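Appendix B. Raw example, untouched.
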Amino acid sequence: MCGIIIIVKHIYLALECHHYEAVYIREQRKIEENPTVYGGDFEDPALKDGQVLVRVQASGVCHTDLHIVEGDVPVPRELFPLIPGHEIVGGEVIESRNPRVKEGTRVGIGWFYDACGKCEYCVSGRENLCPPSATVTGINHHGGYAELVSLNGDYVTPIPEGLPSEQAAPPLFCAGITAYTAVKRVRPEPGKRVAVFGVGGLGHYAIQLIEATGAKAVAITSRHARLAQEAGASQVLEKPEGPYDAAIVFAPNSRAVAEAARSVKPGGTVVVPAIMDRIEIPFTSFTWEKDITSVASGFRKDARAVLGLAADGVLRSMVKQRRLSEAGTVLRELKEGKVEGRVVLKP
């Protein structure tokens, strides 16, 4: 515990204590009811073996954070008060109990806090599918809406020199890696047309990744045409005009999935990274051997790949910076569809 003086052979050691401010929720409620609280004066627990203590420099705001705050994602009662946030870049590791991570290293982490390391998925490099004991940043552990955060050092990723933290947070640690995984699943090639339903925090990364392969990204959006154009979409439409070789649905709307299924060619693929209550698709929309699949964020190797693309300038983050204390306001704006691109919170 903090503040205790230990006497060992007449040597006095004062254990260091880290107090920090954070945005947290005491219970899950609709964002209109103002469930987020800024303050708290949290006291970080003693690090366990393998963990690192990170001073947060930037934390991206994801639509899933809104789902967590509002109760769409179940959270065990004993975890409250809960600090959300799973797109974290730390200014530095200020304390390490992991031999793989040196103090002073700038690191980040995303959705997956850790996994069991032993199951068939973990040993094959697919730890994001670990069923026994995978845990999530900002759900099973305090997240990045804070000045400090404790992380599993085995699951953090070093940030390349020269890549600003506010650029690294969203593209690497959730939106970018999810978009990257979804784009890989549709296997874009030069000349192919891939429809992107919903252009926001994830969609604008997918557009860039599709265009980088030589394929044509067709953005389907009624709100964010300008963002789609800035991301480099070959075509921007309010309604699909297929047929397309593949489609990715980022809009959290079951009707968009049905539209995507109708608009792809026979044998085409529809990837659905969006979170929604249910998906309803008429049988006639996917009879011709159309694949409809989901993605679960990505692997650590994908995180490194996305970081490399961002560092090389292939993947740009269209971000706006806001103060950590504004997290509740940002989440409300996200729900109202007023956020273009991605918002990064800075302590």
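End of appendix B.
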